[in-house]
Amino acid sequence: MRFVDLETAQAAPGVRLVLLKGAPSPWSQAAKAIFDLKAIDAVAVWKTPGDPAISAWTGVANAPVALYGDEPARTHWADILALAERLAPTPALIPEPFAARVLAFGLCNEIMGQDGLVWNMRLSMIELSLQTQGARGYAMSIAQYLGARYGYSAGCGAAAQARVAQILEALEAQLQRGGPYYFGAAPCALDIYSAAAMDTLSPLPPEQCPMHPKTRAALEARRDAAPDPLPAGLLAHRDLMHQLHIPLPMEC
User: Fold this and answer.
1) Given CA atoms 93, 201, 23, 251 in this order, what sign does their dihedral have?
2) Which CATH number is 26's domain given?
3) Is residue 116 in some structural domain?
4) Are residues 140 and 82 in the same domain?
5) Residues 183, 228: one domain?
6) Which of 46, 47, 151, 250 has its CA 20 to 30 A from that of 23?
7) What does pTM read for this prediction?
8) How far apart are CA 6 and CA 230, in angstroms?
């Protein structure tokens, strides 16, 4: 994947990706890893929050965005995955048996979707930030912005933490049934999304994942919002994915 400026990306044929700059966004990092793992020729541009030029081009305010030819922009994780599977069926990142496919998509959504793992962790972080007036977690302006986007309501942090624990338990159980990946001997999309989520919930050291110190401090405050340790098996799986499939240092 080649990172280019906006004008080059606009003129390029084929696949163009817009990825969030400045933090290890699990959605952007997973999209990048999927296209890299499939060796799909693509160009990418970084998007900083509030970048009007890129939003005007893609028609959406969010990242990641995948554009292919004249087809509509794709922003949902499942749509981006489906595009990558169509363009490069091998290696397949969706399990073939129907029951495994359904389970994989369900668990992917539990990580990446609304009311999923990252969503609820952010809700608990928003609550910590607002309760401490920005002394821990996000700065107040960011907490208020994210609170409006994620449907924060006062006191929702406990339910969000319980949902996080429930999803982590389900992921750990499936990983134990599979091994070393979620569905056996080869990685699938769920392995990528899981690793990307762990990179947010337990940030890698600066030499492996450079980011702004304030962003790092906010992410590391997760331990204050949800002090229960992350399952060791999920972190070991994250390390395996980086060792074999998602090179370090990360780009963000």
Assistant:
1) negative
2) 3.40.30.10
3) yes
4) no
5) yes
6) 151
7) 0.95
8) 38
Choose among 233, 45, 175, 30: nearest CA to 113: 30
Q: What are the tens digits of pLDDT across the range 198-214?
A: 999 999 999 999 998 88
Contact 34, 247 (CB under 8 A): no
Give 116-160 pLDDT, tens digit per residue. 999 999 999 999 999 999 999 999 999 999 999 999 999 999 999
Cα distance between residue 14 and residue 67, in whole Å: 8
Last residue of a domain, one of 42, 64, 87: 87
Written as one string, the DSSP assignment of 30-74 is: HHHHHHHHTT--EEEEEE-TT-HHHHHHHS-SSS-EEEETTSPPB
User: Which residues constitute the domain of residue 67?
Assistant: 2-87
SS3 212: coil
Mean pLDDT of 47-62: 90
Rounded to 5 degrees, φ, ψ at 68 are: -140, 115
Write down the pLDDT at residue 252.
Answer: 86
What domain count does the chain have?
2
One domain, residues 71 and 102: no
Ranges of beta strands (E only) in the chain are 2-3, 15-20, 42-47, 65-68
